[in-house]
Design goal:
Keywords: ATP-binding, Nucleotide-binding, Transport. One of its GO terms (molecular function) is ATP binding. This is ABC transporter ATP-binding protein. The chain is of the alpha/beta class. The protein has a domain of 190 residues: P-loop containing nucleotide triphosphate hydrolases (Rossmann fold), CATH 3.40.50. Helix content is 36%, strand content 24%. It contains nine helices and ten strands. The strands form two sheets. A six-stranded mixed β-sheet has the order 6-7-8-4-9-10, with helices on both faces. It has a four-stranded mixed β-sheet with strand order 1-5-2-3. Helix 7 links the parallel strand 7 and strand 8. Helix 4 crosses helix 6, helix 5 crosses helix 6 and helix 6 runs parallel beside helix 7. The longest helix has 17 residues. The chain is globular and about 55 Å long. The structure holds adenosine-5'-triphosphate. Adenosine-5'-triphosphate binds next to strand 2, strand 3 and helix 3.
Amino acid sequence: MDHVNDVKDVTARTGVAGERIPTVIADRVDIVYRVNGTSAGRGSATAALNRIVRRKKTERASGVRTVHAVRNVSFVAYKGEAIGLIGTNGSGKSTLLKAVAGLLPVENGKIYTDGQPSLLGVNAALMSDLTGERNVHLGGLAMGMTREQIKERYQEIVDFSGINEKGDFISLPMRTYSSGMGSRLRFSIAAAKDHDVLLIDEALATGDAKFRQRSADRIRAMREHAGTVFLVSHSNSSIRETCERVLWLERGELRMDGPTEEVLKEYEAFTEPKKKPRPAKA
Ligand SMILES: Nc1ncnc2c1ncn2[C@@H]1O[C@H](COP(=O)(O)OP(=O)(O)OP(=O)(O)O)[C@@H](O)[C@H]1O
């Protein structure tokens, strides 16, 4: 099994114990995507025929290409931590998050989690033809809340999202929302529940400054109540506001794992364009 839901067994075996309680352990994880239909040939029927004819050839010849998205990544996350995942485009952040959520198999290594991690992405499935109100109920049920819990927290969710600040938008279909409003509602629904491990993919990026501040406060509160929060973001300020630890992935490899400021300092030096030397004064 590559995704095991019992971290306690591992802690017993490895002796990682004491005050800090591990919630996620990634042990030398490799994740590989396989993409079909990449060989020359027109249309998928030709590609399929090619695959049958050349069954014994290499993967590349049969039209299957592999993308090694995460390479030999290991880390231990503890209860109460908020961890930022950073890295340039295509460095493997979303892939790693999906694997921690149990949505992608790992090629090598293992991921152990304590409790069921919840992945909150900007694409979290809400129904655009239904009203915000219906979506709050559906989203809550999808996360495992009871009808009573949803009723109890409904007003809190709507108030937190700020959707109704500019009129009665919560009774309109979600397709009438701006992308920022949509992701605020998604975040608010997810934040209404206490999660053991909450995985957030860019959810805060589209909110305005006021909402970002509220989200950062909410994430802090969630950490105090229980679990561990992972946040993937390209916004270094969101990471600074929210996380005290950062994992930096580059080309699928874990380049740095440490306190936010230390890692961001190196990352910013890596991503900022090199300054041209000033011409010498005449
Ligand atoms: N479904 C997929 N099939 C094949 N390759 C994929 C798939 N999803 C991602 N990849 C590849 O895996 C690598 C890592 O992608 P991933 O989306 O995890 O990166 P990321 O760090 O989240 O990027 P970004 O910052 O742009 O969102 C990339 O090379 C990407 O092309």
